[in-house]
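Two quick folds needed for the group meeting slides. Do the first one here.
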Amino acid sequence: MELKYALVAVSLSVLAFGLISNKSDSHSVSAPMVFVTFGLLGYLFGFSRVDLSHGFIHGFLEITLILVLFTDASKINLKLLLKQQGIPIRMLLIGLPLTIFLGGIGAHYIFQFESIWYAFLLAAILAPTDAALGQVVVSSKVVPVRIRQSLSVESGLNDGIALPIILMILVIAKSVVGLEGHEEVGVSHWVLFAAKQVILGPVAGIVVGLYGGKIISRAANASWMSHSFQDLSLLALSFLAFGFAEIIGGNGFIAAFCGGLTLGNTAKNLCDCLYEFAESQGQLLTLIVFLLIGTVVLPQFHTVSMIQVLFYALLSLTVFRMLPVSLSLIGSKLKLQSHLFLGWFGPRGLASVLFALLMLEELENPATELIFSVVLATVFMSIFMHGISASPFSKIYSRSVGKASKDIKEFRAAEESSMMNQ
């Protein structure tokens, strides 16, 4: 698609949704739903043809994810988060592995891959969640702060945690299928690789966020830095954290999240521009991604196993997510309604598409093509299922837990202060 037509398509999409944006939430119409639909219409009427293998697409998705992780993390009040006594930690350290395990076993029996590692690869790619698809939930005042903040933190961290798992499974899958030119590696290599990803990534992010914020703050206070470059420099820290982590062998996405988290809790006075970015330019980037998803879903969806694909996608959004989350929350004293609410709102979006593209770059065969189709189907279903249910389910859940005493765990720490820095 030529640049001039792409600009017209994006501009018209933004304008069209902008006209009804103030009414969309009350009618259970989310921005991702609308932009994916616009993308599909553009493909169906021949206005857009996007080459998914083009490096620009992958780069654009990666840049968007870095900025979203960084800006979202900067809004988190770390002191109050630590008082939550571990809902996100439970979901990440117990729920996420269980989701990958259960999803992998299910994929193995449904698709009968030549290697079970392909099944676990699919499950790992679909494990990360995307809060942007349930934005009404994480921003709704009717949902207890503790619950929506837990969903936000989980979605911010789980893609960075899932990535090293995905990369390790890719290495194992290459070894199992015996690709030419692939060197055999031992378990120690995988353990070292994972350790570097999850240790060096946060270190890089913390260093960049802490010292980058201090440098910018001092330059601004000394009137050496203009306001516009102060804003640009803060955004540059997200890419610096990502790049620094990748250079030293860490995970860039974890670094971006940790960098934003550190900046938001050590230099709060600098973060107004990040919040403004998230509300405008950041949202625009995310919506363009969903527009691109719409333009590539149909042409790239090649499978003869339509029933199996849709069945697995439905299981991935329900059983394979909700059961592990509920098991991880045993002992947390949260009510059953909260187990179900936290389990349901695990939408799949940007990270899963990005990781699926990464998989195709590393390993392309009939099995990975099927995996890619399953990922697209799951993300597509999630956009509409979670978008439609966000507002009504939030109200139902709020009424349910609101009838109980304010001493219940759902409201603990929420009344003390807002979890958000802004």
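Then this one, please, same format:
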Amino acid sequence: MSEIISMLNASTGSAAEKVRTLLRSRSGDGRLFRYYVRTFGCQQNEADSEKLAGLAELMGYVKTEEPGAADLIIVNTCAVREHAERKTLSIIGQYKHIKENNPSLVIAVCGCMVGQEHRRTELKMRYPYVDITFPPGSLHLFPGMLLDRLRGGKRSFAAEPEQPDVAEDVPVRRESSYRAWVSVMYGCNNFCTYCIVPYVRGRERSRRPDDIEAEVRGLVTEGYRDITLLGQNVNSYGRGSGSDCTFPQLLRRLASIEGDFVLHFMTSHPKDATRELIDAIADEKKIAKQLHLPLQSGSDRILKLMNRHYNFGEYRDKLAYLRERIPDVSVTSDIIVGFPGETEEDFEATLEALREVRYDRIFSFIYSPRSGTPAANMKDQIPDNVKNSRFERLVALQNEISLEKNRQLEGETLRVLCDGVSKGNGGMLEGRTEQDKIVIFAGDPSLSGHFVNVRVTRAETFNLYGEIIK
């Protein structure tokens, strides 16, 4: 444990060790201090929560799945949509009764939601049982804030620093022993008019390529089989890293590591998706033949209002080159329905884009105004009934396309990384292909974490079904 602490930022490691010592002094009856983490939001939030769990265990806490049994509750929040924030606040409200029964409980709220000043103020004034808040860029400062509170200090509500650190060597408690998230950069410089992320996660800053390679190499040595590189816009990788290494160069460098594993990454911004990137995907066997490339809208007028810096023609040309280089590539996307000013003609352009591009899958969202973003103040906000109707039409069309694409795989044998027993499928196993297709099949649970070859016997909209080929 002391070796891990010595690798951390000095103040963070010192605070973590002091918390551990303090807890030990309070456990005269030998009782354990427990922590509970609740996560909302994207893969980056999941990766952050694994670091928070690592810090909690470094400080001497042990994990519990029950918030009522915890001495430390950490809520990692999302701010992308209003619904997510409301759900988060509702959950935090439920912890009031736990605090009443256990006054020594510390409740910490972190993540994107508390990167907004109005939410920090709300938590401070309306949720007096919340002890600490801190934004994503201050995650490594958590031990110091917790130490101060445990010593009787005042409640603390930290804002995002102007220049957040890129903290290395933060311990990670990974939820899986064979799938791993690896953050390569943080923040965003794009300022899409609907998006709150640049305001709550700060400007782009990248990790050093040597540090990333060391982490990935260590994961492969430990037996990890699926590694996903994370960033708000991975194609911008390099800023602030002290290196001239581009993201495609980083991909090739990581793909050269010996071992049986697959590299995924997300998210790519279309304006920065270059032929160099596509060539790296095509050339390197260990890079998954799958690309998530958010379109958001098929209307050039709406794309301009969104400040996306590309038009559909440019987007289509990049996909044409991608499919020329990798004919069997899987392409997924994000689509926003009901952006301010979206006309029926604009929405029809999005439907036509889906028909032309034929995504394997999309992640579709109804536009949600975010306070502080330009789009929230735009005229011609779309009524909810119109947004809901368009959303249903979009989903219906994509479901048809997804089913057709999946049926083309019937009879094919696919390499699948097994995730163990599938929920709600009668004891069948579940896994994913490198193209991120979910496959259900019969087998022994001991196959979890291993690659298996599965012949597809039946396809549905969201899942493939098959049998193991030995």
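Slide caption for protein two: Confidence is low (pLDDT under 50) at residues 1-7.
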